[in-house]
Amino acid sequence: MPQPFERHHAEAFVALNMSDSWATSPTFGIEFAGKLIGTVNHEVDPPARTAMLGYAIGRAWWGRGFATEATQAMLRWSIETYGLTRIWASTDLGNVHSQRVLEKLGMQRGSASPCEGVEISRCTSSRT
């Protein structure tokens, strides 16, 4: 994610994701005090009732609970909307703050594997 994460970065990301089908790639902007400070999205596989969770928050707003609040809202909405039974997300192994956000969602840390040369950790959450 570019740093500083400015409005035009968030707008470009939302515009790119909004070109995808809402049915499989819903994306929301995260706004605070009239500013677009980040995004939260899913890549949904409706037949499998699974989704990948993604989010990005501008550095100036890190550590203030915005990622946790936005991802919690996204999960509530998507579970209700899609009836999801499994949600997963990946983080850089060194990104302990993002891992903590996922843990607050009830996700469990899984395996680590390389992705484009970066070691990542996959976290999952299952619902029955």
From TrEMBL:
Q: Which GO terms describe its molecular function?
A: acyltransferase activity, transferring groups other than amino-acyl groups
User: Locate the N-acetyltransferase domain: which residues?
Assistant: 1-128
Coiled-coil regions listed in the entry: none
User: Which PANTHER family does this UniProt record tie to the protein?
Assistant: GNAT FAMILY, PUTATIVE (AFU_ORTHOLOGUE AFUA_3G00765)-RELATED-RELATED, N-ACETYLTRANSFERASE DOMAIN-CONTAINING PROTEIN
Q: What is this protein called?
A: GNAT family N-acetyltransferase
Q: In which organism is this protein found?
A: Nannocystis pusilla
